[in-house]
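Researcher: Go.
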Amino acid sequence: MVLEKREELEAIVNSSPAIVFLWRSAEEWPVEFVSENITQFGYTPEDFTSGRIPYASLVHPEDLERIQGEVSRYSEAGISEFTQEYRIVTKSGEVRWVDDRTWIRRGPRDDITHYQGIVIDITERKRAEEALRHSRQSYEALVSSVDGIVWEADARTFQFSFVSQQAERLLGYPIERWLTEPTFWKDHIHPDDQEWAVALCTEATRGKRAHDFEYRMMAADGRTVWLRDIVTVVVEHDQPVKVRGVMVDITEHKRAETALRQSEERYRELFENANDVIYTHDLAGNFTSLNKAAEQVTGHTRDEALTMNISQVVAPEHLERARQMIARMVAQGVPTTYE
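Model: Structure:
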């Protein structure tokens, strides 16, 4: 009955991915017992139990010193069990990763006699971890290359769960504040923009749709920073769970817009109030704009003049010369003066 139970137990072990080892506490860890499923690494139990192959020769050379050091430290510290991860080399030369869970056997005088353990192949898990690490590195490299703040927040509270390092450079607040203060974003929106910006983001979240809007935030040093925030909503089971976005600094763009608007206003004021006639026309000679002085000189209202051609206001004897001068100006691309 006992024999049957043992055979049943061995059958269970040999059909599992867990390889059972019993090592003597001696140099290079000679193997006294190894389960039949060692064949998954290309070896037979006799390769080890015969003494031809000590277990240490199975361990990848780059990991052996570390493994030996760890075993020595655990043994000297009186630890009874420990776990290690390292690489082994199969009989065909393939490198595999294993998880080794070891128990220490001690004799009557508390001296270590054996190590017994279970070794499991974790190569696929390691590959997945490496792929994930590589993916994370690629994502981080991508995020760091974005000229803006990449962020993620809860769809209901807008508390940040991720903010890229550009946030600290752009606005001056430590990343920890973004992640730990529940109302950080709301609190640092410019007071004049706060109500409608939060309302727009809330509306986009409830509508489960992307949104793109511009608003101002207050930097740590008191500066006002204009941001263009491109927001997307993450939906799970038809419910918004997260919002993600990129905040792009458009402060210089806004300054340029303001400067352009002011310049256009100054131009319009000069255009309207100049004593000289100022006008524009297209290449066919049709008027596109005139100032007040032009109305006085031509005798036509502005609305009337804008339906006319330059040929209708230039004296007939001067018309051909005017056309030639305009054609020359267009061809040469330089200002031209004529009477």
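Model: The longest strand covers residues 224-236.
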